[in-house]
Amino acid sequence: MRKHNFNAGPSVLPEFTLEQTAKAVLDLNGIGMSILEISHRSKEFEAILAETKALFKELLNVPDGYSILFLGGGASLQFCMVPFNLMNKKSAYLNSGSWASKAIKEAKFFGEVVEVASSKNDNYTYIPKNYSIPEDADYFHITTNNTIYGTELKKDMDVKIPLIADASSDIFSRPMDVSKYGLIYGGVQKNLGPSGIAFVVIKNDILGKVQRPIPTMLDYKTHIENDSLYNTPSTFAIYACLQTLKWIKSIGGVNTIHKMNVEKAQMLYDEIDRNKLFKGTVTVAEDRSIMNVCFVLNEEFKDMESEFLDIAKVKGFVGIKGHRSVGGFRASIYNALPKASIVALVDAMKEFEKAKIK
Amino acid sequence: MRKHNFNAGPSVLPEFTLEQTAKAVLDLNGIGMSILEISHRSKEFEAILAETKALFKELLNVPDGYSILFLGGGASLQFCMVPFNLMNKKSAYLNSGSWASKAIKEAKFFGEVVEVASSKNDNYTYIPKNYSIPEDADYFHITTNNTIYGTELKKDMDVKIPLIADASSDIFSRPMDVSKYGLIYGGVQKNLGPSGIAFVVIKNDILGKVQRPIPTMLDYKTHIENDSLYNTPSTFAIYACLQTLKWIKSIGGVNTIHKMNVEKAQMLYDEIDRNKLFKGTVTVAEDRSIMNVCFVLNEEFKDMESEFLDIAKVKGFVGIKGHRSVGGFRASIYNALPKASIVALVDAMKEFEKAKIK
Question: Does residue B13 sit at the A interface (CB-CB below 8 Å)?
Fold first, then answer.
């Protein structure tokens, strides 16, 4: 029986993706070879890559003039590729969580980093607002969803310099106005596929403005010119992403997924707010993520934490323990998490309240 | 029906690997989640990683004092990570093929590169010999097997400075004396698993000798200290490698595999040498690779190339067309290629000869 998978990533994927990829691992469309055994330069894989990019473009409504890349190394490698390629002397970052903070650390290898605002002193319980962005910076970097702290920057911002977004944990969870971004990147292991690769959506004309020499594999131009095939990409991961994109399309596209996500998140936040045992950790309501829901037990019930985790285990909930930086609980409720898993969690919270508060 | 898969990489994998990974994509050992859906920090994945490393160490006989890493980005990213981490001002490279040449190109971003010898002017038809290695270089880099040109450096060399080897296409095909190397790396997509990651076997004490700042993801120390879990690795690719390592062990280990490889290669080279239509492209017999067998039609039969490729197609041979740099044919005959595929190819060559030379 399938678990209720609240993992933060790698995380739950559509059963369609699992079934299709498992089949392809044995034999890709009856060609007598596995998806793992075909050349990245074969006509079969070229068709897979082309379809993946086309669906990505269609579903996220990516304008012309952007390239869509699938690169090895995950989002963490992008933390250094972004400044390597885009920062001459100065860049601006919003510090909204641990991952933003890691991105900032890497940018500092390449020059001056202006941290325009930070919610670090409040343990990242909200997204900083009302800051100014230096117009002489080469770009402004944001993290659209903070997986660990459960906050989300849901609006596509208007910024005068190129806007760069790490959208690892909310890509394809909501419609985005891609035209407002210079570059959007992320690991695919939350809403798209298996871990190990990053997607990069890059506006071609933001490149070519830095002076430093860039090693070939770290240069976005290499991958644009070679259509992600300069070296052997993770052919399996790309195939799995394609299946998930097909699944997103089959249920109605990103707008539909977004409605479902909002409904799922609302059900869970409503219960957190209603239930006398629990409270949310995000202090500003509009910043609550629809992907990662962080909550803790109220002070007087704190000692019941491991008890609720034990119940969760019995009920088949996986990944519900909060990150050590926040404590308590975290339910990651990505696109592929069925509503039934939210219902099960909400029911368990209600039951727990009944048992504890007579 | 399974094809005779002579692909250069991604390439044929053991059926055991395909069956086990397909099962795990649906449900990993009955835990109610796919291998694609579990956290890289879960106890399940920790056990997978530990077992993969232990088997790798056991089968390749890796001495203590070395770390075994699985990193994103493939061997091409290692081309720049090696000099980033190990080269202060000067390094030495043997230019034995296209991949060696690409590695040299990346090293030049970091300082002076001494090309100790090159067979480029002879289209890499042999491995250069009788050169001297500058002892003031920080390391000496070789490519143990040249996938495109079908040459192989089969001896573990004694070198006074750290020896670095790209062993992408012959790792686990023969026993290696790892103690003679400072670092061995390679993409896993030939003899181990799916494309997308690189293995790195690194002697810990060769690190810490360069002055330059290294971005976190490009620093081997990061990955050693975090046991390949600094960022989310390709959990699926590592799981697939584990299955192949189990398969290698089950058939008797690397010595057994090596005997099988030598026998398979010999059968094919014998036919190439015997058959009046064909000839091998490697000019020095001892340099002939046991992994990639390159051959062409003799001058007077050159116009029959596409005819033989058509026959190959009908017979279910995949990937037999030679790389454009060499032309003719290339049979990549990695560990997992069954002897039956060699027999089929040899038979086809004999038949073709009979049809053409009355």
Answer: yes
